[in-house]
Amino acid sequence: MLAAAVDTARAAVVEAAGRDAAGAHLGVSADDERVVTHRFACLLPGYASWEWSVTLVRVSRSRTVTVNESCLLPGATSVLAPAWVPWSQRVEAGDLGPGDLLVTPPDDPRLVPGYTGEDAGWPGPPDVDDELAEIIAETGLGRARVLSLTGVDEAVDRWTNGPGGPSSPLAVAAPGRCASCGFVVRLGGLLGQAFGACANELSPSDGRVVTYDHGCGAHSEAAAAALSPAGAMTLDEVGYDALEG
Q1: Which of 91, 89, 188, 177 is nearest to 138 (CA)?
Q2: Environment class of residue 2 by beta-carbon count within 10 Å: exposed (0-12), middle (13-18) or buried (19+)?
Q3: How far apart are CA 127 and CA 129, in angstroms?
Q4: Residue 84 lies in a domain
Q5: Is the pLDDT of residue 225 over 70?
Q6: Which residue, 10, 62, 83, 192, is most buried by CB atoms nearer than 10 A?
Q7: What are phi and psi of 31, to 5 degrees?
Q8: Which residue range forms the structural domain that includes residue 129?
Q9: Which of 148, 145, 75 is nearest to 116 (CA)?
């Protein structure tokens, strides 16, 4: 009885969207006992290959067919909007502009609570003397949150594999490494073991973090390393090398 009630299902579509909304009957399927769903082609502009879905039900021992629900569903070839992605997963480096606010979630794995806790003031909690507050401020422990080991590891990975790392074309062609350059300022904390900031205004890396095995042509000792003459080749016709038999 429910499978044969095609006109009842079509009437539900007409009531919802108008007489010209439903096209050919595409089929019917049983969802449960005394529950079936009829499908109709959608003729609305902009909804190519979409289908009207009308579910009919019948109470036990009743001969009355009732419309349970009707809706418009996409077909196999329907054009759909891309899956929604939370903003926190869409933001990329460089997206933040003047006046924009990027809220850091409270459970960000890159951060852990700082020495003074979330309610601490700056430069230190009010119950410490000025000398201790100054030490706390200098060491960076007066912040509500600080970098976690995860945050440090992610920064190391980005900086090592970025333009300030040892594998960039600039570093490969450099006459010397940043570790021996007088323009490099060492970072504090764990990151200072492998990274510094370039302070040479003539360097492409000026103001950026570089690894100590990075380098560029603006090395403070570049003249001594690259401009010294190599000398002419000499053929030794006097000396000899002892070879073991």
Answers
A1: 188
A2: buried
A3: 7
A4: no
A5: no
A6: 10
A7: -90, -35
A8: 108-146
A9: 145
Residue with tokens 């003459």: 229
User: Do residues 157 and 134 share a domain?
Assistant: no
Determine whether 85 is exposed, middle or buried from the number of CB atoms within 10 Å of its CB (0-12, 13-18, 19+): exposed
Residue 60 in domain? yes
As a whole number of angstroms, the distance between CA 54 and CA 91 comes to: 41
Query: What is the torsion angle, in degrees rounded to the nearest 10, for the CA atoms of residue 159, residue 160, residue 166 and residue 168?
Result: -60
Same-domain check for residues 34 and 47: yes
Over its C-alpha atoms, the chain yields an Rg (Å, rounded) of 36
In this structure, the chain runs to a length of 245
- Residue 158's pLDDT band, with cuts at 50, 70 and 90, is very high
Averaging pLDDT over each range in 15-24, 71-80, 144-153, 196-205, which range is the top one? 196-205
In the DSSP assignment, the letter for residue 243 is -
Within 13 Å and on the Cβ side, how many CA atoms surround 193? 4
Tally of structural domains, the chain: 3
Domain boundary among 73, 100, 122: 73
Neighbours of 166 (CB within 10 A): 17
Could you read off the pLDDT of 4-33 as tens digits, one per residue? 999 999 999 999 888 888 899 999 999 989
In a domain? residue 50: yes
Task: Give the whole-angstrom CA distance, residue 63 versus residue 216.
Answer: 87
51-57 β-sheet, strand order? 22-32, 35-42, 51-57, 66-73
Give phi and psi for 93, each to the nearest 5: -60, 130
Cα 120 from Cα 114, distance rounded (Å) = 9
Query: How many Cα atoms are found within 13 Å in the side-chain-facing hemisphere of 155?
Result: 19
